[in-house]
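During the first year of the project, the team set up a workflow for recording each protein of interest as an amino acid sequence followed immediately by a discrete structure-token representation. This format lets reviewers and collaborators read both layers of information side by side without switching files. As required by the reporting guidelines, we include two representative entries from the current panel. The first entry is reproduced here exactly as it appears in our internal archive.
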Amino acid sequence: LYLQALYRVSAADFEGAASYAERAAAVDPKRPEVYSVLAHAYRRTNRTQEAIAALAGLDPLTRSDFPPILLAHAEMLFSEGDLEGGKAVVAEYQADFPEHRIVRDYFQGRIALLENRPDEAVKILQIVYRDQPAFTPAHYFLGLAYLAAGQRDAARETFDLYLRQHPEDQMARAVMAQEFGRFQDLQTLIEVA
């Protein structure tokens, strides 16, 4: 069932993926990767609250066995405007994985940005991006932090580079269009990359 759910995700059949993942979770409720697929499928079908509930309802030991569960849960809570809930999940992550400095610092930057402290967010996210340039969320949110801090040139440069590396990211393309009045087509971004 889990493999079928993964296959459905790869085929962009998120309703089917959710159905298979739900059944897989019923058969083996202690398998965290099933919940990761389930939450992803729920989000892609605009059922974010169900995704949050599925991750929140997991046994704490199961959650701590699979760090991506906690990361996804915190991100969903933040994107839904639940800052305190997101902070609680971040604290859970930090307690379970104190050695993960990059993720800890990334979330400190995200929280600073959400709490309207953009200059602090920029400083933190610059360090995270410098130390781990492949950590995509830090790169994206660094661009947003630059915007919030009024550093438009740095934001434009950050998003230009980000989109060369991730030309498929519709949210980043929308930010570029809204903030800088330009929207590069996907083919141009791919050719530049």
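The second entry, processed by the same pipeline in the following quarter, appears below.
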Amino acid sequence: YAPATLLALTVLAAGVAAVDEDRGPRAWLALGLGVGLLACVNAVFAVGAALAVGGYGVQGLWRAPRRLLAAGAAAALGGALGLLPYLQVALRHGDPTRFVWGDFDTAQGWLDFLTGRDYGHTAHAAWGKVPAHAGVWFEWLLGQGAAPAVLLGGLGWLAEARPRRRVWVPAVVALMGVAFTLTYGRFHPQVPD
């Protein structure tokens, strides 16, 4: 999860800067590339980052349809380029000296690999336990001494000059975090899985 978290945070920070500073299509190409690479590491993180940055981009560029279209096209191209590591899987899956997880001789095998069906066995079904799991997580943060940092970060975000305009990014990230982490039937706050 460490590489996925680092890449997701990089994409989020660069996305906010791309919108706020109107950096143009080249920046959006790089953002798409980052999201594509992130999808190769963790698809859930990639969806969260793409929704957060994409939503913020639409919010920031909706009055300039041509720039919005150019940003979207560049991000889509970058995303496709970022998915190229999957080409390595396609090229190496039959090589006996390489280990590649999954059955790639059928279309269903590829679909199982790309969706995580053959190795993702954790069910996200405990939506009713989210408040209790959030309480357990916050209690764990207190015990680790990290809760003050989280609270200070939230207060810092609220004190920012443009918090309403940027609400999209942390809201999507928080919702994806809740959906990904707090909905497990068996929840352990020290294990981010």
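For the second entry, the following points were noted during internal review. The two ends are 8 Å apart (CA to CA). The chain has a mean pLDDT of 81. Both points are flagged for discussion at the upcoming steering committee meeting.
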